[in-house]
Amino acid sequence: MNKILGLLATTIISAGLSFSASADKVTLKFHTFVPMPANSNAKFVKPWADKVTKESNGEIITEMYPSMQLGGKPPQLVDQVREGVVDLAWTVAGYTPGRFPRLSVFELPFMPTSAKITAQAVQEFVETAGAEDLKDYKILAVHVHAPGMIHTKKTLIKSVADFKGLKLRGPTRSATNLLKKLGATPVGMPVPKVAPSLSKGVIDGMVVPWEIMPSFKLQELTKSHTNIAGNRGLYTTPFLFIMNKAKYNSLSNAHKKIIDNNAGMSLAKQAGILWDGFEGPAKSLAVKAGGEFHVLSGAPVAEIKKAGNEVIQDWIKKANSKGLDGQKLYDTAKSLIAKYEKTY
Predict the structure, then answer these.
(1) Are 143 and 242 in contact (CB under 8 A)?
(2) pTM, whole model, 2 decimals?
């Protein structure tokens, strides 16, 4: 009888320890629209997840679900995180127009410089002047890509007149508004739809940074590439790396500390450095694919900036109509970029 009781006690204790150990385990479901080999997954989120797992002694595990494997469309990712359908997501803020009215200031023409500098400005912005936009999420990092440029199937854009009649994809309202003012027919769509749209002739080209092109083999579908001269790029797009707030709040203090240590300004800066570094290798693939290249400068850039200023004024008016101080938000964003620019 004593042996049976002893065995029973040992079993109960073992089960308790096993339950305790499993109770310490946390599984985070990560969802995104790009394929697993994309830079954002392979070189940013996956290393982040591995680091968090290591620092938690294997207690925090991230399951990766790329290419919308859990269902839905790219614009739904922010809702999936907010509602707890998934725990983490990396997505484009501009895929849900009007959802992040303050943050969208960074989408305006000739706002960005390098991704490293602009990402730090964006991160400070969402922690201060733009905090209301992301109050429903645990922010891991908000960052940007290096300034985007124009890529077309046939027409090498060397003047503003070359935009006329082209159907060009834009990622955000500001980008499509600028394309329209330049005489193009803007088409808004998430980047996964760009390749099939190019193949079917739905669009003639798109504005994207070099970085994303290899993930969808866009350098093989567009052969003409135009950039803008100067220390400010044509546009950029804020990216959101966000976590469900309730999931974060449910973590132990020790686990929260690990997440916090791998979030915020340091992570945004790291992302900016990565995205700047992605540009060169991606462009080299376009060179190997036989692309032709042009850099707009002088009068054409002045014309584009004039159209860009109209887009900026449109944005300010729209922000004001929503009860925001559009001019103040615009000035704040510019000053933050200038602030971080001075540190390099």
Answers:
(1) no
(2) 0.91
